[in-house]
Amino acid sequence: MHPNKKDISIVINSTKSSGVVGHARNPFTRSPVPILVNDEFIYEPGQDVRLCSVYTGPEEQAFASSQGLSLVSEVDSKSWTRDEICRFALENQLGGYPVSSKLRDWLISRQR
Fold first, then answer.
1. 51 phi and psi, to 5 degrees?
2. Are 57 and 41 contacting, i.e. CB atoms less than 8 angstroms apart?
3. How sure is the predictor about 15, in pLDDT bands with cuts at 50, 70 and 90?
4. What is the 3-state secondary structure (H, E, C) of 12-28?
5. How many domains does the chain have?
6. Fewer beta carbons under 10 A from the terminal one: N or C of the chain?
7. Element (H, E) at 48
8. Is 42's pLDDT higher than 60?
9. Does residue 60 sit within a domain?
10. Contact 81, 74 (CB under 8 A)
11. Does the residue 67 lie in any domain?
């Protein structure tokens, strides 16, 4: 079992087409991260999820704002470099590869 599976709690309301449906725990900061559903996003070819962060585009930021969420960078507040984040992730079996084709993020790739 993955060491952080116990940190994921998802309750899905199948009639809900938009909004918070559960929470996961950030493995780096241990703070809760909301899991949201939105059936209005248009996905690019080969993409089936979207990651909202301070580095994403205006559509994701507008969606987060409409749900009463602000996008903050907790990693930046710790002044970690990308190499330090990837090293921490590798050491803790959290991924740590520099790319992810599905999420288009530089942090954690679980597809490998």
1. -105, 125
2. no
3. low
4. CCCCCCEEEEEEEECCC
5. 1
6. N
7. none
8. yes
9. yes
10. no
11. yes
